[in-house]
Structure formats: C-alpha cells, structure tokens
## 1
Amino acid sequence: MSAEQGSSKVLALAESETAPDSIEAFGPVEPVGPIDSVGPVGSVDDARAGDAVPGLDAVPAQTLPATEAIDTRTLSRSLFLRLAALDQDSPERAYVRDTLIELNLPLVRYAAARFRSRNEPMEDIVQVGTIGLIKAIDRFDCERGVEFPTFAMPTVVGEIKRFFRDTSWSVRVPRRLQELRLALTKASDELSQKLDRSPTVAELATVLGVSEEDVVDGLAVGNAYTASSLDSPAPEDDGGEGSLADRLGYEDTALEGVEYRESLKPLLAKLPPRERRIIMLRFFANMTQSQIGEEVGISQMHVSRLLTRTLSQLREGLISD
C-alpha cells in the first residue's frame, strides 16, 4: 500500500463510525479536546523541554473544521505512538511516517503563507517547508507532553528562512556579514532620526561595538543582495543610451600576452645567464644591440647572433608546449 493510499484510508476511517476501533489499532489514544489554536511556539529546544514558547503566531482554529482538527490531532498522536514502537527497518514504519507527513501538510501550507509576499513560487516554499516537517517528525518524541504542531512549527519556519537566506542573495556572503548588515540598517535609521543627519562610519562602529573596517564591509555587503543584468538599459538620468555592458569596462589588449608571458617564464629560466641577460636588456630595457654589446662586453654582431639563436629556442619551446 502506498503512503498516499494509506493516509486516505486513515482519514476515511476517522470519518466513519468505526474510526475509534481503527485508531486503537495503532495504540492507546488519550482524549483530546477541541483545538482552538496550536499554541505559542518558538525554538525547537524549548518545544522539546515542554515549556510554552513565545514568539511565533499560533495556527488559528479556522484552518480546519472542528471535527477534522480533532481527528487530525488524535490521528497524529496515535500514529506517533505507533511509530515509536516500530523498528527502524520495519516496512510499516515507512507507511506510518509517510501518513504523518501527509496528515500534517496543512501545517506547512500555513507556515508558507507567511512568506507569500516574497518573490518565490509558493510551491517552492511549501516544498522547503515539507523538508522541515519531515525533520520534525523524525525528531519528535510524543512522550514529552508537547503537541506536535508546537514542536514542528519552529523547524518548518526555520527551514523556510534558511532557504531565503541561502538563495535570495545574488552573491553568497558569510552569515556574519548578513546579520551585520541588518544591524547596520537598524542602527543607521535610529541615528539618522536622533542626529537629523546620516551617521558616520565611526558613529555606527561605536553604537554596534565593532571596528570601522567591519562597518565598511557590512555596508558594502548590501551591493551583493541584488544584481543587474548586463543587458539592462541605461537609466534615464544617464541618457538612456546603450546597455550596461556597453558602458562598463574596456578591452585590455595586454590580456592577450598573459598566456605567452606565463609560458615563457620556465623557458627563460633555463637559458644561460648571458643569453637571459641579453633578452632582458633587449626586450625589457629597450636597449639597442650596440648598447647591449657595450654592456655585456661583446660585439654588436655577436649580440645579433645570440639573439637570433635564443629567440629560435624560445619559439620552439612555445610551439612544443
């Protein structure tokens, strides 16, 4: 039986008159009252400890009808009890786990709805949130007295936020600089209202307790959040002519010689000292053959023969490589 068929069967049993008997097959079930809300939730560690955790919006009761919400809560608890009693390699464990995932998908959709204003497809956000749901199911301990939605919501939301943190930036920057940028934005707004002017780097560094170099890095990080296409048209205030690629950079003719220079370095190192010195004086010091002859202590004709022989050796070395 597939996971989809299994979850449909479990839900169908809950709606039928034989639902209580079918639920008992998974293990003892504690009575659960109507669900007004999932309750306040926060970090996963706090949820595991069984304490009330503030900081996250509760799931309203309107998310599901009253009877369906009760059945979902009861079924989840029963399935978690059954899941804890099964071996890791048991085929039934995979069936129960898949049923729990499908049963709690509305929780993921509710959490994903908080991020609908982001410039990402809702299907991708739900898919990422489902990964957090699976992690929460694998770590949940039903014996700690914490309801599963209270435990799972921080993991689901955290997985979605991690997705935005890793994919929203055009250029990947360290998380420390991302957090510093947010702190700089907040501190800059507060100081601007207090001083009635834009704060300086030194003032921002004093408020945040960091060095001025870190402030400069944090301000520069903002340029990495979004990127412009090289084919984008020029702004109207710049004349609006040509694309960004037409207005940036220039053709560096020296780049063509980089490969040759790097290839010549080992060949020049193998030359005798006199020939290497003649090459350096001729092509780097721009001296004439007569000047080189006077510098080295040989005739101009001898310099010409040495240059011809040495250049032939270098050319053969480049061709063979």
## 2
Amino acid sequence: MIDRAMKTTRRQFLAASSALAVLPNAVSGADTRPAPAGLIDCQSHLFSPRLLELMEKRTDDPVVFTKDGTRFLRMGDWLRKVPPLYLDVDAKLATMDAAGIAMTALSINDPGPEWFGPDGSEVAQIANDFVAGLARKHPARFFGLCVLPWQDVAAALRELDRCAKLGMKGLLLYTNLAGRFPDEPEFRPVLARCAELGLPVLLHPAKPITTDFVKGYEMTSSLGNMFDNTIALTRLIMSGVLDEWPKLQLVCPHLGGTLPYIIGRLDHQVVVLKRGPKNLTRTPSEYLKSVWLDIVSPLPQAMKFAVEFMGAERLLYASDHPWVEPRVILDALRSLRLAPEEEHRILSENARKLFNLEPAGERRPPA
C-alpha cells in the first residue's frame, strides 16, 4: 500500500509540476509564437571522448567507469551518468536547430584540469583542442570557451594565450578550483590577462564545496551548484578584482545563484555594519549590476526579478544543454512578454557584443 501511495503521489506531483510550468502562459494567454531564429546560447556542454577515455584509466578521482552498460563519472560521493547523448555533436546541432539557436558558446563540463594534479596541462590541451576543433569544423554554429590548469599558474597563462590564438572567445572558470576559490591572489594574474585580452570569464559550478552537506536527497546539483555560484561570485565582488581590472568581463550562470535575492543583506553588512573589505569603491549590489548573468532557471518569476534588478542589458540567454532542453529556458523567458527590444538583447544582442561575434544575420542555422 505504501508503494502504491508513493506512485500516486508521484503522478500527482508530476501533474502539478506540468501545470505550474505553464502557469504564466495560462494567466496571460498561451504564447503561440514560433521560436525566434538567431538565438545565441551562452552555456552548453559536451564531454570530450578522449578525456572520458583518460578518466577510465585512472584509479584516483575523477574516474569514469561503466556499470550495467551505463557510464558513470565519479568524484568522491558524487556520481553522474554520462550517456552517449552527452558526447553527440550532431544531436546538439539538431537541438539547436529545433530551438532556433544560431550559435552556441561551447565548453566541456567539469571536472576541469585543476582536478588532475600534474596531468592538468595535458588535460587542458586535450579539452581545448576538442572545443576549438568543433568551432573550426562548425564556425557558424559554435564558439569556444577554454579551461585552464589552475594548479600551475604559469602553465595556465601559456594555455590561455594559446587558446586566444586558437580563436577561443572566453574562459570557463569553475566556481571552485579543486576546493580553492578563483579570487585567491595566486590566480589573479590569469584574471588580469583575460581583462587584457578582452576575453569574458564565465563562471560555472564544479563539484560543490558543500557536497557533504547537500548529497542527501540528491541535492548536489539543485542546491550545491547554486551555492557554489553564489560563493564564488560574492568572493570575486568582495575581493576588489572588478576595481583592479575594470575591463574584466564576468558572467555568472543560473541567474547568479542566490546572490541577487540576498544582495540587500550584503549591502547592509558592508555599508551600515562596516563588515567586510574596506577598499571597495561601490556597494556590493552595484558591483553585481556590472556583471552579466545567464538566465538558466526554469522559473519565470526568477527571470522577471533578474530583469527588474539587473536590466535586460546584463542578461544572456543560455540553455545548459544537454541537462536542460533549450525550449525550457526560452519558453520561461518568453512567457514574461518583455518588450521586443529587451527580449532581443537577452536572446542575442548582448552575447554578440560581449563575445565580439559577427553582425546579426551573418550566422544562421541551416534551413
């Protein structure tokens, strides 16, 4: 009886979730507009087959293994499935076409090179050659984001320069670097070089530092990743790097984690209670409004708050494919029925300017 009750409850929950997902449209009228063409997706991932093969040979985490025909990536207690779809370039292109996505900022997913100890430089080169190769093969569809071996800053700087010459358009910076934070003084020469090169820095969660606290109930991705986004972005703001390098272009995924929602408390702590760094020239909320956020969240109300708080000129469309279908994020945004110019900024114009892409109309998905 308990099992039957649980199955009934699950069906009810899924039905309620489906109804909630379309609630904004139900209130304002169904959005029957076709997907706009020419979208730019600022967060999308593929696993490198060569890196997976390398991890299959490892005995220490990160490790890839196969059990009962399913491939798994293991990092401590965190296990993730790696189905063939996560390596399928053609499937990604087909998904892009179906969603009207003209171009995608392509990156590997974690683990990054910083988890591979002395092999970090080799791993970075494998990952970056993989992404750059796909961008060369499909120049009208992909532009690349590179990763670096942060455990060796000199090697990281060399790899960053190499990737710039390969035509990579930005840096994927994990929110923690094998347990360390990207604002730490040792890593700042890399941030300085990104500012000099004009390469945007896009944060992305890795194995969360809170894994031990959120692994219960499988909350590592739902909560742990969002806390990592919040902590990394807050530390970068509080560290003063945005004053030290005003040209540094910083992007945080997933609507900034929880930071936009709690930034008022941070302002109060810093400005009124005088807690925190004393060398900041602006309030934390002013720094936050100077970065970009991608809109990966399935909740339209969260997007609405971001538009009101940040302004449409600081938001970027992204999908987080293959974990999220692009239409999930697109439909949530379009349910807000923003002014056409605001929607256009979020869906493509901001990304074209940020990544210095070709003018609109010159890159289109195939008919």
